[in-house]
């Protein structure tokens, strides 16, 4: 990784509620990640972790609550403006399959950051080099391993110069031997001071990289604290039970 300066922002959710029909998926979530901080969100499947992340980049509009970036409410701001500031990396990469690796990064740079073709290509090549894929620019994503595809997705998100990055189970679809490389890349972003909100099942990553860990269950953050507190002294029976299953 290069050590290019990043401009990070704090991100905060206040009393976020989301329902799908009669199903209450988020039931009053408060969460703040300070600028440059890393928070990992853990919890069982279906507890609302992805919905929570989607609220942070305005892919999901909450029924109630507020979203703040750098201390300012952006809950009624232009969603595209928020997405420009908040990058997201998904479990299944979400690359354009019929485009080259380079184009996957160039196209959003042109449409979102309005860069010229030449400038976009230059930025894209720099970001690809950062994730170790300079030689893969002309290939289709399908010619790459899962780990390489996820690196492209990360490079694409970083090319937007986000102030906050969201990772939703970014390593869950990868073969085991490819997981560490992606986690190392994420740890590198954390150490560069980018604000990270990371949904993960990788408890080792949460313990070693996160400043704070939040445990979600049934649409609420049941417990949050330092990794040592959460993993070594879990208070609620639900967290104790969850940890006994995953550790
Ligand atoms: P997690 O990421 O923790 O597994 P999700 O946020 O994906 O949880 O989902 C929480 C709950 O909300 C689940 O019961 C899921 O089926 C439901 N859900 C998520 N998105 C939608 C949607 N668009 N419409 C209806 N139900 C949804
Ligand atoms: Mg999920």
From TrEMBL:
It is a peripheral membrane protein. It comes from the Bacteria. The keyword Cell membrane applies. PROSITE patterns: ABC_TRANSPORTER_1 (PS00211), ABC_TRANSPORTER_2 (PS50893). Keywords: Amino-acid transport, ATP-binding, Cell membrane, Membrane, Nucleotide-binding, Transport. CDD domains: ABC_HisP_GlnQ. InterPro entries: AAA+_ATPase (IPR003593), ABC_ATPase_HisP-typ (IPR030679), ABC_transporter-like_ATP-bd (IPR003439), ABC_transporter-like_CS (IPR017871), MetN_ABC_transporter-like (IPR050086), P-loop_NTPase (IPR027417). One of its GO terms (molecular function) is ATP binding. Residues 11-243 form the ABC transporter domain. It is found in: Cell membrane. Belongs to the ABC transporter superfamily. This is Amino acid ABC transporter ATP-binding protein.
């Amino acid at each position: 990784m290069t050590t290019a300066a990043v401009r990070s922002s704090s991100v905060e959710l206040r009393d976020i509620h989301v329902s799908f029909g009669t199903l209450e998926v988020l039931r009053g979530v408060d969460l703040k990640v300070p600028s440059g901080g890393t928070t990992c969100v853990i919890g069982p499947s279906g507890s609302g972790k992805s919905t929570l992340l989607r609220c942070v980049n305005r892919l999901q509009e909450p029924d109630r609550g507020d979203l703040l970036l750098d201390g300012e409410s952006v809950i009624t701001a232009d969603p595209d403006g928020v997405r420009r500031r908040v990058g997201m990396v998904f479990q299944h990469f979400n690359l354009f399959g019929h485009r080259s690796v380079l184009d996957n990064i160039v196209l959003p740079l042109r449409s979102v950051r309005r860069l010229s073709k030449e400038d976009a290509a230059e930025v894209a090549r720099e970001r690809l080099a950062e994730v170790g894929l300079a030689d893969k620019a002309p290939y289709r994503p399908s010619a790459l391993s899962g780990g390489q595809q996820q690196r492209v997705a990360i490079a694409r998100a970083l090319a937007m110069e986000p102030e906050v990055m969201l990772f939703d189970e970014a390593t869950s679809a990868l073969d085991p031997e490819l997981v560490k490389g992606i986690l190392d890349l994420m740890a590198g972003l954390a150490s560069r001071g980018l604000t990270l909100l990371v949904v993960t099942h990788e408890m080792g990553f949460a313990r070693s990289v996160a400043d704070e860990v939040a445990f979600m269950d049934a649409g609420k953050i049941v417990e949050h604290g330092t990794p040592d507190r959460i993993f070594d002294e879990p208070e609620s029976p639900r967290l104790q039970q969850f940890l006994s299953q995953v550790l």
